[in-house]
Amino acid sequence: MSSPISAVSQMLERNQALFVGKRLLVCGALEDDYPRQLATLAQTLTVFTTDYCYYRSQQAALGEAILFDHQLGGAPRFDALLLLMPKAKAEAQYLLAMMTPLLEAGADLFLAGENRGGINGADKLLAPYGDKPIKRDSARRCSLYHGELSKPVASFELDAWFSRYECKAGETELTVLALPGVFSADELDLGSQMLLASLPPMRGKLLDFGCGAGVIGSMLAKRNPDLEVSMVDISALALESSRRTLAVNGLQGKVHASDVYSDIAEKFQHIVSNPPFHAGLKTFYAATETFLAKAPEYLSANGGLTIVANAFLRYQPILDTHFKRTEVVNSDSKFKVYLSKV
Ligand SMILES: C[S@@+](CC[C@H](N)C(=O)[O-])C[C@H]1O[C@@H](n2cnc3c(N)ncnc32)[C@H](O)[C@@H]1O
């Protein structure tokens, strides 16, 4: 039995005659199995994702038709682009700038998404590439826009898309480079700042889980020259940002994709994180629960997990269940830093 598809995909499904016979490139906020259906309609299908979790969920079915990376290059070879509107507008602009050089002149530009996710800004997003798009459909609080690539396209310059800022934790200064949509792309998060202020000198192997632009792992590598730093994230944009942050500061570290612990096969003395959570929800993000619950399996004897969390998130009971002891080592009205020992 196939799993249910999102409201956006249901809207696309009833418009899928638009994709028949196309050399189609699909990217953006992919979240279900619907793109697989397009493989039977389109002449060719390529799905590009920056989300490792989505990549892993579709890889067996799509094989070489799905690519996980921060960038896709090569000669123009597609005649239609379907962009599923990402949460951050800057990420939509990034994806369009990267994908349009891969399209032939006159290619179809489709933009789909939820109305509350900014899809009705499609006119502005597509303005650099062609005339005003038409609204093909609107249903279930989603919309589909259709334009045409009719303006000349500039080649994609990855370096131009990094934001850059300087930050300081204690005496350690760091330059941070971040691609659009990456957490804390413009300034050091206050929670991460408190986490960094709470960590003692460290040695051995350290895992920075959910590294974002790499600020925590890079700061710690700079402060602790004997520390062997690994960084993981689910986002290809975050991973490339972390690599750049390490490089611009002349630091070394291992950076790779992992959905929670999917690609981790070693143990660490330290795991540190400002873990992901869904703002506004009382429930935790399921991935974070798994991250906390399974952390002891990835810590060596006497190893420790140090995390920062919004004070309203109740991590203590989860940590108490899975660790011998947990203490709050720093806190203010907004954040708490927990240190848990195996
Ligand atoms: C709150 S941000 C922290 C980023 C960075 N460490 C900082 O302090 O600025 C959480 C990060 O976790 C990543 N993330 C979300 N789900 C994940 C998962 N299942 N596995 C690995 N990383 C994940 C997000 O992409 C994001 O970069």
From TrEMBL:
Q: Which Pfam families match?
A: MTS, MTS_N
Q: Which residue intervals define the domain Methyltransferase small N-terminal in the entry?
A: 9-165
CDD domains linked to this entry:
AdoMet_MTases
Q: Where in the cell is it found?
A: Cytoplasm
Enzyme class (EC, first level): transferase
Any one GO MF annotation of this record: 16S rRNA (guanine(1207)-N(2))-methyltransferase activity
Q: Which chemical reaction does it catalyze? A: guanosine(1207) in 16S rRNA + S-adenosyl-L-methionine = N(2)-methylguanosine(1207) in 16S rRNA + S-adenosyl-L-homocysteine + H(+)
**Enzyme Commission (EC) number:** 2.1.1.172
Domain Methyltransferase small as annotated: residue spans: 173-338
InterPro entries documented for this protein: DNA_methylase_N6_adenine_CS, Mtase_sm_N, rRNA_ssu_MeTfrase_C, RsmC/RlmG, SAM-dependent_MTases_sf, Small_mtfrase_dom
Keywords assigned by UniProt, alphabetized: Cytoplasm, Methyltransferase, rRNA processing, S-adenosyl-L-methionine, Transferase
Quaternary structure (record): Monomer.
Q: What is this protein called?
A: Ribosomal RNA small subunit methyltransferase C
Classification from the root reads: Bacteria, Pseudomonadati, Pseudomonadota, Gammaproteobacteria, Aeromonadales
What gene makes this protein?
Answer: rsmC
